[in-house]
Fold this sequence. Notes:
The complex is a heterodimer.
Chain A (H helix, E strand, L loop, with lengths): L3 H19 L3 H6 L13 H5 L7 H16 L1 H5 L11 H13 L6 H5 L6 H14 L5 H13 L7 H19 L15 E4 L2 H5 L2 H14 L3 E2 L10 H5 L2 H18 L3 E4 L3 H15 L7 E3 H10 L13 E4 L3 H4 L6 H10 L2 E3 L24 H7 L1 H10 L3 E3 L3 H13 L5 E3 L1 H7 L14
Parallel strand pairs in A: 1-2, 1-3, 3-4, 5-6, 5-7, 7-8
Chain B lengths: L2 H26 L15 H8 L10 H4 L2 H26 L5 H27 L1 H6 L2 H21 L5 H14 L7 H18 L18
Helix pairs in contact in B: 1-8, 2-9, 4-5, 4-7, 4-8, 5-7, 7-8
The structure holds iron/sulfur cluster (2 copies).
The site of one iron/sulfur cluster (SF4) has 15 residues of chain A, from helix 4, helix 7 and helix 8.
Amino acid sequence: MASDAEARARALSSALAALDAEAGRQAAIHMSACVRCGLCGQSCHIYRSEPTPANLPASKVEAVASFHRRRHTFLGRHAPRLVGARDLGPRELESLVETVFGRCTGCGRCSLHCSIGLDVSAIIRAARRVLTKAGLTPDGLRRTVRTQIETGNQMAVTPEELRETAAWISDELAGETGHEGARVPVDEAGSRVLYLVNPREIKFFPLSLQAAAGVFYAAGESWTLSTRTCDVTNYGFYAVDDSAAAELTRRVLEEADRLGASEVVLSECGHGFRSFRWEGPGWLGERPRIPFRSVLERMDAWLAEDRIPIDPARNAAVTTLHDPCNLVRWGGISEPQRNVLRKICARFVEMTPNRADNFCCGGGGGMLSMEEFGERRVRSGSIKAEQIRATGARVVACPCHNCADQLLEITRVHGLDVEIRAVVEILYDVIDWRRVRGQTLRS
Amino acid sequence: MSPDSASRALLGAAALWAAGALAFQAWRFRGAVRREIAEPRGSALAGAVYGFTAAMSPARKESASRHPLAFGAGILLHLGVAASLSIVFLSAVAPEGWPRLGAALAGVSAVGLAACVGLLVRRLATAPLREMSPPDDYISNLAVALLLASSLAFRLDVLPAAALQLLAALVLLYVPVGKLRHGMFFFLARGDLSLRLGARGVYPPAARKGGGRGVRR
Ligand code: SF4
Ligand code: SF4
């Protein structure tokens, strides 16, 4: 059995090789651009909630860039102290883990406000890639990636469990809506849409899946879940384990092909959307033949086409909207959910700031799977909690199950009397079932 | 060779070194600024245009709106550098020409010099900034101050053209190896981010309907 020292030496040499591989790549551009003006602190929810120097976005950039500078710049090699270049050693590796996994969610807000415009999260992701290659991913995150690769989903939901849940949700749905045809189809070849959910919906939030099933039915969409790949999340993205991330993307495309689906619709999930829609083609090295769409885009289109009869008067509660960073700032999906909410909420109010300028809720970047940073995660949610409080809303529409977990926790901690709901759940509540035609349009 | 032509030759060589070394560093990143493979949702070009215009206004950038003094000083400093480089250039190619323009450039350099000193004081006086700053930050600041001050001194007839050109050549030698290379990396970094956000439909921001400002003022 290898000794600790040997393991540490191996980790270090893998990290150095991975660090060298980043030279000449996108993140190294950004590492070379920071002028250390320090004007980014107030744009970061983590720094604002815990204003220590280590939480300054500029310090996080510097924590990574100093190692790159040491190996890949002239003065860094020959006069390291002059330019603040540092050698990457075992101790530095350890503190880097906390910096890039525990002090930054990669939300990207600071980048939009940086005087230079450098992509801080690209730097953080490059460092996460280095640490992952060195086997230093925090345990919780590494375990989740492994579970996802081994079982096909991050919560190890079995095919039987999925089928059983689908069956009882179908019963509930038919009973509630009065439409026998309303159900949760599983493994149905020939469906137009393969729908991916967050496994939390199957395990803990079945109402969300029930609502989606109701909405699909009301819109007359032909869709199915798959017992092989049901998961919209991709923890390879958070760990920056590119091969795991690519594998999870490939499996979904293969399953969509096998079932003959012509579109993959993604349940409300920020990083899931970013992973499949934007990063997946990069991981695979090609543009997928089958498009990925967010269910938010689909709902927006269905309402615009009048495919779902609604009665917004059923929803009188003041409703506000959380903008998940990966969906909005990194994904470009800011308006579909607003179009939907304006149609289905009698009283919709915006948070300030909003859209691409939103504050991260604190639960991004895989934080929810890393217990060791839990205290900071909850503290960093205080900015979002104050934003919610200022709206006076009773309902927070949250188009991401990951953010929803964080919002549930921070609203409890901050004593906010609000309900956190997926957009699809709010839409489901206002469907006028007497006017639903009830046929499924097949492609 | 006269001292004047020697200093001009040195200045030319230093300018070539700076431009060449920066171009080489940029070339090393060829291919790093990638087009999205994913089908675009917006326009990368529109994103870049927005990224280099409205996105940099204080209304859109907290680094400016929350720090008006530092932001203002930064703008004045960069204007001063442009003015000083113009003075250096004119001293080499048309020492007698454009006296009015020279006076205006000297004024801008003077303001730039004041801003440069102000930013140095800010760095020294702000604890987290001071802790984070390697000597390179101070050398870069002083190099720029030297350029600004010497071009001003030249315009005030206290420094001969040859000395100005030699000092400017010294500063140019440092440009590609220290923090001053951000003059090139600024365009690469902001360009890369803006192209990506443009392709994803994030930049430029969607028209705002139904209230709610995207940006905190
Ligand atoms: S605002 Fe940008 S350039 Fe300035 S210190 Fe922060 S990350 Fe660096
Ligand atoms: S990406 Fe987000 S969490 Fe990370 S430093 Fe920037 S603002 Fe803070």
